[in-house]
Write a structure and sequence with these properties.
The complex is a heterodimer of chains A (336) and B (89).
Chain A: H1 6-17, E1 31-36, E2 39-44, E3 47-52, H2 58-69, E4 86-88, E5 91-97, E6 100-101, H3 113-124, H4 140-153, H5 160-168, E7 185-187, E8 196-198, E9 206-208, E10 215-217, H6 221-232, H7 237-249, H8 262-286, H9 293-305
Antiparallel strand pairs in A: 1-2, 2-3, 3-5, 4-5, 6-8, 7-10, 8-9
Helix pairs in contact in A: 3-7, 4-8, 5-8, 5-9, 6-7, 6-8, 6-9, 8-9
Chain B: E1 10-15, E2 18-23, E3 29-30, H1 35-47, H2 74-77
Antiparallel strand pairs in B: 1-2, 2-3
Classes of the chains: A alpha+beta (336), B alpha+beta (89).
Chain lengths: 336, 89
């Protein structure tokens, strides 16, 4: 289903790279960077075109694009080539400068943990009350709930029970059944190491990409995937310590400046562990394959959660300036 | 056994796992070969705190976290590249 848009997207990115209909003399004319249900991404020369997932909310994507294009986010989010999304068949397409991602064979020790953390801290510190447009809600809990729906639809699996138990004890907000706790800050919503690129490619500074889940919400959610990796033993204590220290050094507000960060991280890290484990089972079931070592580790983490009560989450800082958020997808009503 | 000094009978006591003989007459103590060193060693262990169990300063972790004692999966991950760390999975 996601491949339907590929030929048209390839033509779109080619024409964007050669606007005057000049003949293409690119050394690397084109490449499909991703072709998944959550988006198709094609590169031609220095231009990258993304066809967003079918059903993407156009109004919300426009606000997320406006954020990526705004000077307040300069140096944090990769800025688009054009601030507007264009329709292509039934998909929304956005254009971006090419940036170079981390190579898959990178040693985790050499991953830019500090850069990722500092970018998140800067994102979370953006004064959203000064942006001349409202922001949608960060979609982290929506994505977690969707992962659980996929797990339930995947049919019986021996690993499913501990994941479902861990999900059941999460507070309602982490299951997308209640508003996220305040204070709300500008969040990426889906951070992992594939969301970093160097721009300009190769030598430029690191930037965050992928605005599809960007919005207002609980900033600790953006730290939750690395935290879940660490808690599962997938990422080592040294890498986690580097990430956390850099986030704190950059004034990141999601955790206290010192002491134990886990009261703030417990619920989001549990939610991300459950999300990762749920998707792993759903994908393994669909492909009729077993789970790999990392996937097993995430399910083991879910199993251990059953014995430990959820830490009551308290705001790290008092609520700051009220920020405006537009209603969630499918909801109506005035922005508040 | 009799005391080599006053020839009174000696009683055996166990002190911190070390067998020592004490004279019931003059209260003198007889130590077998190596027993003085054994007592010294035991005394030193009492005085020193136990060494830390791991090399890393224990970073705070959730109670449900990985307690594999030693290396977690990241030890293997290191040789495999970034793998799962690059995707939304």
């Amino acid at each position: 289903m996601a491949t339907d848009v590929l030929p048209a997207l390839t033509a779109r990115v080619r024409s964007a790279a050669h606007p005057a209909a000049a003949p293409c003399v690119c050394a690397e004319p084109g490449a499909v960077l991703a072709d998944r249900a959550d988006g198709t991404v094609v590169r031609h020369g220095d231009v990258v075109a993304k066809a967003h997932a079918p059903g993407t909310d156009a109004a919300q994507l426009a606000l997320r694009m406006a954020a990526a294009d705004h000077p307040a986010l300069d140096g944090v989010l990769l800025a688009p080539l054009h601030p507007d999304a264009a329709a292509l068949h039934d998909r929304l397409v956005t254009l971006w400068p090419h940036g170079s991602p981390l190579a898959p064979d990178t040693d985790p020790e050499r991953a830019p943990w500090e850069d990722a953390a500092a970018l998140l801290a800067r994102l979370h510190r953006v004064d959203t009350s000064r942006l001349p447009f409202p922001l949608p809600l960060m979609r982290g809990p929506v994505k977690a709930a969707r992962a659980l729906a996929r797990l339930r639809a995947a049919g019986p699996h021996p690993g499913a029970a501990p994941v479902l138990r861990a999900w059941a004890v999460l507070p309602a907000w982490a299951r997308d059944e209640a508003p996220m706790p305040s204070p709300w800050r500008l969040c990426h919503g889906d951070l992992h190491l594939g969301q970093l690129v160097r721009s300009p490619a190769g030598t430029g500074p690191w930037r965050l990409i992928d605005v599809d889940d960007l919005g207002l919400g609980a900033a600790a959610w953006d730290l939750a995937r690395p935290a879940a990796w660490f808690a599962a033993g997938v990422v080592g204590p040294a890498e986690w310590a580097r990430f956390l220290a850099a986030y704190r050094a950059a004034g990141g507000p999601a955790v206290p400046a010192g002491g134990d960060p886990w009261p703030a991280l417990d619920v989001p890290a549990r939610a991300l562990s459950v999300q990762i484990a749920a998707l792993a089972i759903a994908k393994a079931s669909a492909a009729c394959r077993g789970l790999d070592e990392v996937e097993e580790a995430m399910i083991d983490a879910c199993a251990r959660m059953a014995e430990v009560p959820v830490v009551a989450q308290e705001p790290v800082r008092p609520t700051g300036a009220m920020t405006r958020a537009v209603p969630k997808e499918g909801e109506t009503g005035a922005a508040k | 056994m009799q005391c080599p000094k006053c020839h009174a009978p000696m009683n055996t006591y166990n002190r911190n796992g070390v067998q020592i003989e004490q004279c019931s007459g003059c209260r003198g103590i007889f130590l077998d070969y190596g027993e003085l060193e054994a007592l010294t060693r035991v005394e030193a262990q009492w005085a020193q705190p136990a060494p830390p169990p791991q090399a890393y300063p224990a970073a705070p972790a959730p109670a449900w976290g990985h307690h594999g004692g030693g290396h977690g999966h990241y030890g293997h991950q290191r040789h495999r590249g970034l793998g799962h760390l690059l995707f939304s999975s």
